[in-house]
Design a protein that fits this description.
The protein has about 200 residues and is mainly beta. It has one helix spanning about 1-20; strands at about 20-35, 40-60, 60-75, 80-105, 105-130, 145-160, 160-170, 175-180, 185-200.
Length: about 200
């Protein structure tokens, strides 16, 4: 985390001196799923909140670092009637390289891609069951403290507003562990794929 912070600080300082610079707050939501090859285990991620700040450095080709606070709500349903809800709070640090395809005075259209790091700062796992069970299920330790994703997206700027639609795909696993029920052990090895929509306000 410290290395990423120093890298972003260096990028800010060097590019503000030599290129066009924009910064502002943003708000949005994510809609996502967890995927893995187990037919008797189902999961889904609820739509979640994103609050953060973004900067854009450059003109036609630009660099966009972000710092976001992200809430994630994951629901796991197991084959014995047990359901677990995982509420995660994360600090998300995306870094994108983009290009402006349309650069008119009022409207700009952008394409971008890059990578992001997610640092989970809070994990809350709750379990409910419809039947009596002695199974072993997911715990907070099965969710990694940090995970990484790639991202691609498209954005539209209208005056001072910036609307971005992004897809995040997994570069590693968010959940890694096993659960035991009905006298069988099942591996849970899941990465997250996330669609994110954000609306930003360019302060300058």
């Amino acid at each position: 985390m410290k290395k990423i912070t120093l890298l972003l600080a260096g990028l800010f300082i060097s590019t503000v001196m030599f290129g066009q610079f924009t910064i502002g707050p943003q708000v949005g939501y994510t809609s996502s799923t967890l995927s893995y090859n187990k037919n008797d285990i189902q999961s889904a991620l609820k739509s979640n909140l994103v609050l953060g700040v973004f900067a854009r450095i450059g003109k036609k080709v630009y660099l966009q670092p972000e710092l976001n606070y992200l809430t994630q709500g994951s629901v796991f349903k197991f084959g014995d009637g047990t359901e677990q809800t995982a509420n995660l709070k994360s600090i998300q640090v995306p870094l994108s390289l983009g290009v402006k395809l349309v650069d008119a005075k009022v409207v700009k259209v952008r394409l971008f891609g890059g990578a992001t790091a997610n640092f989970i700062v809070n994990k809350d796992i709750s379990t409910s069951t419809l039947v009596s069970t002695t199974g072993d299920y997911l715990t907070a330790s099965n969710f990694k403290d940090a995970n990484y994703q790639y991202q691609v997206g498209v954005g539209v700027d209208v005056l001072m507003f910036a609307l971005d639609v992004k897809y995040y795909g997994p570069l590693d696993k968010l959940v890694n562990g096993s659960v035991t029920y009905n006298s069988q052990t099942h591996t849970v090895d899941a990465g997250s794929s996330v669609f994110m929509v954000t609306l930003g306000w360019k302060l300058f």
